[in-house]
Amino acid sequence: MTLMSLxxxxxxxxxxxxxVLGVLAGFAYSSLIPLTLIAIEPLPFRLFxxxxxxxxxxxxxxxxxxxxxxxxLGVCLFIMIMRALSQILLARVSISAATDLRIRLYQRILxxxxxxxxxxGSSRLLVALTMDIPQIINGISIMPxxxxxxVAVIGLLGFVxxxxxxxxxxxxGALVFGVVTYRVAILWGASYIKQARVTFESxxxxxxxxxxxxxxxxxxxxxxxxxxxxxLIAAEDQYTKHLKNGKTILNAAVSYGDxxxxxxxxxxxxILVEAYTLPQDVMLGTLMAMLYITTPxxxxxxxxxxxxxxxxxxxxxxxxxxxMPEESQGDAPKDECPxxxxxxxxxxxxxxxxxxxxxxxxLGPIDLTLRKGEITFLVGGNGSGKSTLGKLIALHYFxxxxxxxxxxxxxxxxxxxxxxxxxxxxxxxxxxxxKIAGVANVEELDRLAGKYLKExxxxxxxxxxxNRLSTLSLSDGQRKRLALLVAYLENRELFVFxxxxxxxxxxxxxxxxxxILLKLKQQGKAILVISHDDRYFHIADQLVRMETGQxxxxxxxxxETQYN
Length: 564
What we know:
Number of strands: 15
CATH architecture of the largest domain: Up-down Bundle
Low-confidence stretches: 43-50, 559-564
Mean pLDDT: 80
CATH class of the largest domain: Mainly Alpha
Distance between the termini: 54 Å
Strand content: 5-15%
CATH superfamily of the largest domain: ABC transporter type 1, transmembrane domain
Number of domains: 2
CATH topology of the largest domain: ABC transporter transmembrane region fold
Structural class: alpha/beta
Shape: elongated
Number of helices: 16
């Protein structure tokens, strides 16, 4: 993937038109030199001299050679219009192309397996969306000016060649030497920019730790000092070092690039004049061309560094897209999920990919049944595999082996999305959206939301109008209640609660276990509760105890105990 291919993929006709307009503007720019020379002295150019009127007066100001002046003005306006149209066209295409690239990233993120998303981490994705894409837009948006200036330089060099071939070869040699040495410096600086781009991902992760881990850092001075020195500042130093080196080299290269055309001009004045006996008109034309060529040359060389940074960002986004696995889409979620009565796990196992072969965690094999109208408690110590099993049942994780089935239907890639529509899950790291989607009747949703908010003791803090929650600025426990509200309104068949009551006060914790769960049970829902609250184990129809990835005890409500 290149910057140009990204543009051509979006709108090849507009890109072609933009380039054509830029080429026309560049050639028009190069035509200003012969027009200027004609105005200064006739020389061999007789196009306008044959029938020029004596002059044209505007008040007390006389305009000599009015036709030539009008032509010069027309060329300037033509350059301005062509440049503006070329830039506007490509700017609009570049913004659309960058938007498409962002949307492609959004889609890939949505299609990634949850486990792959967790493994990759959010920092790398956020850097791509917030840093790389804007950099790509900057690089693409200046490409019309590069095309315009390249054509202008070609046209001006063509004029030099028309005047004297020896002078042309001399100027070309000087410019090629300058551009090649400039290009080496640009590539050198770009290598540091690429390293800075990589280290910024680590810095982004440290920034997230600073913001989201502030409470933990406050309570542990040793952790705070270690995080500060070994993570945050170390990442900041690495990023700053690479960025400083890259920007220093690039800025030095840009400063050097500013002088390339002037150096060539000096070589013409102080060396070429001595080496060749040039006619006065050739000398004047060459000097004019070299003066005119400095502006487009400086613009080209200065913009190359921005384009190089855009190429680095585009390559990074391309690598990211290639590294993002996709889930098979299977049945469309709009299809109605078939009715079912129980979920069966048969010899189900799960291994985390990429871990060392020895002593790494393996869940299972698991044999378990969840039924509608029953509450199942999943209990065990930290690291016993409770949350992993919960994610497997919620169809977030995929089993390594074994089978998970809804009644007799085994879940695989072809029907996974369909059966996900039967599940509501509130995890420990849940995210709360302000808009409640998936409910067609807005008025009914608002009515039900008002009713549930009273039950959740949030009616004095939050209200729902037009499918939106009025605020999310609440405590962790209150935000979990709002997540439960959304699950209520979605009205799915299976509810998975991962340590949901951990942030609740004792009064509402009692409400959750003794009222909310029982009400869901009465509605015929299948309920899985991952919990440490042994005070409430008695309400479970099924108590499943885990240790080191294995179910060690299944206790039914009649206290008949089964052991694996």
